[in-house]
Amino acid sequence: MTMQNQQTPIKKRYKVLAADDDPIMREMMMARLGDDVVVTCVEDGKLAWDKLSQEHFDLAIIDLGMPNLDGFGLIQYLRQTPKTVDLPLIVATSRGDQEAIERAFSSGASGFVTKPINWSLFQYEIKFVLKHGQTERELRATRAFSNKANRTKDNLLALMACALQPNIQITSNSTPDQPAPKQCKDYLSDAIELSQLLTQTKPRQTQNLHANNVIEATVNTCQTFARQKAVKLIGRKTLADISINVDPEIWTSVLLRATKRAIESSPNGGTVEILLGGQRDGSLVFSIRDNGPLKHTIDIENELNILAGDLIDFKSDNWSLDLTLPIINQAMIIHGGRPLFQSNVENGNITGLWLPNSRVKIQQLEQSA
Length: 369
Hints:
By secondary structure, the chain is an alpha/beta fold. It folds into two domains: 14-137, Response regulator (Rossmann fold); 165-362, Histidine kinase-like ATPase, C-terminal domain (Heat Shock Protein 90, 2-Layer Sandwich). 41% of the residues lie in helices and 20% in strands. The protein contains ten helices and 15 strands. The chain has a five-stranded parallel β-sheet, sandwiched between helices. Strands 9-11-12-14-13 form a five-stranded mixed β-sheet. It has a three-stranded antiparallel β-sheet with strand order 8-10-15. Helix 8 packs antiparallel against helix 10 (324-334). It is elongated and about 75 Å long.
């Protein structure tokens, strides 16, 4: 008989913090809230504040009459802190007067129950508040994404308009070897490419490409530029039979951009390597490593979101623009992947292009020397 393994979906277990100075109530919270929640209990508002500030929770249940910091004060602190401003909060108290109810909700409570607690109904209250809180977060995330997309669009349109005025110059991220400013028109092709990527949710056409061939083509294309910069460019092929299912035009552009970015940041006599890393889940990372000045996380974030901020005045001469990372990021999103960035003294700067296993076919994993 053939046994078939059926995987049972993993049910999410919510993390709940219960703050109450009554030890019996804390025991009841631990025992009665159901199997789909993990309850952490504390006995006063100060301890609750410390826990909620340092750890992630999906919900907090708060008594009003606690020592050190009462429930009203705790709620106010939580609603004034970015980390917990959206955290669902249920007040569980023996007070049922109108003043307590109004004050709790005006402070930022999501729900209110009175003791003694009807535990069966309370479980439904918890489920409702958790679901409502998740919906609220999703709506806020959608609005934030929409606002970011609109700002990106406005800046792209402004850049394209600037490109139609040939006498306007803008400042690039120059190096001592490349000090000359660029014309707006030099950025037009980048703006058009990014605009096209932003309209796509998946590749328009895909092909199966052999990973070693992709690396070889990238090295051949970038080799002249690397020699001009006195940078050694190395493509590390694998002994594995690895193919990727990607849009060939987009993927070629992404890998070339990431490689040229690494070459530009490398010092004279530096080295840039392109190599592959197969992951345990069958996914794949194209890594581009350079030994240039280490890039800080905040600088990378700023590069990624350069068009998502306030509207840029392209007629001024006190700003810089590089669309490389926004283009790489959007191209990876289209393929269901993401860019990865790492900087440390031992390995230098590494830009990783991660592809999910749905776009990777690996016959054998063995890295050549």
